[in-house]
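Supplementary Text 2. Reproducibility record for the structural model of the 388-residue chain.

All settings were left at their defaults, and a single model was retained for analysis rather than an ensemble. We include the record here because the model underlies the residue-level annotations in Supplementary Table 4.
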Amino acid sequence: MSQRITPSLTLVMAVAAGLSVANIYYNQPMLGLMEREFGVGSSVSFVPSATQLGYALGLILLVPLGDTLDRRQLILWQVVGLVLALAATALAPTPAILVFASIAVGMAATIAQQIIPFAAELAPPQARGHVVGTVMSGLLTGILLARTVSGFVGEYSNWRIMFGVGAVVVILMGAMLALTLPRCKPASRHAYPELLFSLVDLVRSLPALRRAVLVQGSLFAGFSAFWTTLALLLQGAPFHLGSDVAGLFGVIGLVGILIAPRAGQIADARGPHGMIGLGAILVLAAFLVFAVFRTLPGLGLGVILLDAGVQMAMVSNQAVIFALDPSARNRINTVFMTGMFLAGAMGSAVATLAWNTWGWEGVSGLGVLLAALALSIHRLARGDEPLR
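Retained model, structure tokens:
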């Protein structure tokens, strides 16, 4: 590809990644408002799960297409699909239609996972970590702030308004991408079934990809465990605080996200191995802080360490995997992100069990074990084949 990425295009891609992934989190703080309209006990309670299911389907069924189609064209078609899905969600007359529209929102919102390998493709090798880190900062900002924004809109307006506003934002995002994204000649021409079956071959043939999935999956499981149970901790003694305060911790987490571009620069200059290990150590430190200092300042410090560590390791792991096979970057990203999100779902489930059985000590202990596991897997890679 002749065109190289510019700082302005990097910023556009970072903003688009954040705006697109935010759509899968809008419904979480507004679930009570939806149930109030359609009735408690209706299928509306499945809306967050349906959105996550749609995202997983999009990772597996849509993201690999970026290796065999023009990424720009594919992204713009997904923008159209996301606008239609958000409009259907805003206008849904029944819970069943709302659930199916939510699945569509999740699938189309994988625009973010098309953008990340696109940015890696456009970036020169010596700057790839920095570029991917900047785009990932946008993505995680979208994840952290989506709940805060939708909770505010839902509180002072209506949950349907939020999805209508989301559709308008995505239209503007699509116009911005249409004006700035370059055309992309695909690196390979696989038939669609062959494209999907090749995911298994990539897992089998790339040990560095397997390690990246295991390390990042363990860290993201801890990340999900914390955010799943934080509101439960805050609503009890001695805090007695609401979910709105839990949402504000996402704003605190933005401090950690600012580390990502710098982590990418260091990975470019010195290699990603050390930054992955440091990220795991920061996550380990975060859960030790959570266990020892159960105060609002302690939780705030832990959130900064947690988000910084997860982001630092993610950017560095992506610097590793995107250098493995340039012709398969979208499929490699599919394997990496699917493994990471599955681990996150498992982390949330186990954290709920740990909370119900041992309370906050159980959740903190789970996080320590997961971070230690990630660090152990990573350290075993030393002396093995090169990571890049």
